[in-house]
Amino acid sequence: MSALRALPVKIGFLRAETNGSYLQRLAWANGLQIAELLNRLGSGPAQPVRLDEAELYLSAAALERLSHLTGRPVGCLRQALRCVREEFLLAVPASRAAWSWRSPDPKGPCVLQGCYRCAAAKGTLHPVFIWSGLPWQICWRHGCWLDAMPQPEDTRAALHACMPLVLRAERQRLRFERRLGSTGRILFADALSACAYWWNNPRLSLPVRIERQRPFPTLDYSAPFPALAVIYPEVVRLAQMFALWERQHQGAS
Fold it and tell me: Is residue 81 within 8 Å of residue 22, measured between CB atoms?
C-alpha cells in the first residue's frame, strides 16, 4: 500500500456526486482513462458502463487505495461520496481490493446529470452525475433545472425565464416536507399525480398553465421537465390543501 502514490492533481468534490462521476473526473484531471484508474483500485468487471445508468461500488481495501490515490482520508471521502460509506461497501474479504458497477435501486435515490456550471467550476466541461431523492433537482447556486436528460442550450434558456416561479415553488415544497416529513412527501406525490392528470386533459387545463407552456412548444410534456415548470405552483398548493384536509378530518374524528 505504501507504494501506491497519490495522483499529482487533486480535484474538488461536487455535492451528492456519484462515485463513478468522481472517479471519471479524477481520471481526466490526471490524464488517465477511467479503466486505468480503476486498475489501480483493484479488480472488477471489464464491461463498459454509462455513468447515468450505474454506480461504482468499492470494497474496503479499494476504498483505502482510493484514499491513497486522492491524498484524502477515508473519512473525508465518506463525507463527500455517498456510496463509499460503510453500508455500501462490497461484501468481500477484507484484504481484497475490488470494485463493481451496479444499477441504482428503482426504489431508492436516482442518478441525475449534475449542474454543468458547478462542474465547470471544478475544472471539467464533461457531464457529471449526482444522487437525488427525486427525478429532478434544482441547483440553487446557478438556478439550473437538473434531471436524467441533458437539456440543450435553447431549452435551458427557455427554462431560465420561468425559474423564479419554479424556485419559489421548490422552496415551498421543501418547507412543507421538512414540516410533515414522510407524510409531506406522500401528499406531494399525490398532488403531482392529480395535477399532471388535469394538465394532460385539455378540458381541465388552466389558462395560466397554457400560458406557461408557450416557451416550450416542441418538448415532450410527459417528461418531468418541462411539466413541473408549468404545474409546480399548483402541485405545492394542492399538497398543502391535502394536508389541511387531513388535519381537519383527523380533528373531527
Answer: yes
Q: Which residues does residue 217 pair with via DSSP β-bridges, in sequence order?
A: none
> How far apart are alpha carbons 235 and 245 in whole angstroms?
15
| C-alpha to C-alpha distance for 47 and 41, rounded to whole angstroms | 16
Which H helix or E strand runs over 122?
none
On the question of a cis peptide bond just before residue 164, with omega within 30 degrees of 0, the verdict is no
- 56-93: per-residue pLDDT in tens? 999 999 999 999 999 999 999 999 999 999 999 999 99
Distance CA 107, CA 97 (A): 29
Instruction: Sort 43 into a burial class: Cβ within 10 Å, 0-12 / 13-18 / 19+.
Output: middle
Residues 6+ apart with CB under 8 A from 78: 84, 85, 86
pLDDT digits (tens, 9 = 90+) for 92-111: 998 999 999 999 988 889 99
Give the whole-angstrom CA distance, residue 158 versus residue 216: 7
Q: Judge if pTM exceeds 0.85.
A: no
